[in-house]
Amino acid sequence: MIFESPGAILFKLGPITVRWYGLMFVLGFFAASAMAMRLAKKWNLDTEELLNTAFWGFGGGVIGARLYFVLLNYKHFLSEPLTALMIWTGGLSIHGGLIGGILAGIVYCRVKKLPILVTADLILSAMPLAQAIGRWGNFFNSEAFGRPVGEDFPLKLFIPQESRPWEFKEQKYFQPTFLYESVFDLLLFCLLYFGLAERLRKYPGVLGCLYIIGYSIGRLIIEPMRTDSLLAFGIPAAIVTSTILLAVAAILAAVLVVHHRKHSAT
Questions:
Q1: What are the pLDDT digits (tens) for 4-24?
Q2: Is residue 156 scored above 80 in pLDDT?
Q3: Mean of pLDDT values over 243-259
Q4: Which of 13, 14, 33, 191 has its CA 20 to 30 A from that of 104?
Q5: What value, to the nearest 5°, has the Cα angle with vertex 253 and ends 248 and 256?
Q6: Predicted confidence (pLDDT) at residue 228 exceeds the cutoff of 90
């Protein structure tokens, strides 16, 4: 099976250009928000405040995602600083978005006196759904692909020559790593949302930690296949960040389980 992007632009209407990347980004956000609100209603929590938190997280996530990307590509943006604002062309890092979104959500929860851990569980359990949809934006932009593969490879992604790394200019087909991550994210969503959410309800914060652990494991598996990884000190930044987040989330999950068990025992 061959995947080939029809192009980054969905349509143009006068001076307005609608891109697939932005559409996938927005669709992912609303799909995940709807699922988080569905679970919040089931748990008898304020769905309006949850949606407000999600919007704050969305804003913080966009800022964090772009800032993370710009910092890791600072040499390019020093020569063309205005392009740092052109987020519709791509260049949003999921790890930066995750960090920025969580920080913005915490700030909103503290201001509104909302339960931070429970809110995090609701939103983060649905987050992989947004990522599964959002990865298709990378497909339309012909980015986030893996190493070259032969024509007999069962799943392959055609990349136009202008989007290929210079060392692979003569190669046509590449690993569809965007698809691998999209499928992984969808499976992670099903596991967290349908399999674990109710079981871990009495351990606030643990479900959110499991999202970070699961997503980090997925990135550690898929990232080495990619050809366009952002580098930090010569190492793929996603591997460094995923390793750190995995360790922190695992420790925090263990601490939360112990804390909640002690609290319930008393």
A1: 999 999 998 888 888 998 899
A2: yes
A3: 96
A4: 191
A5: 125
A6: no
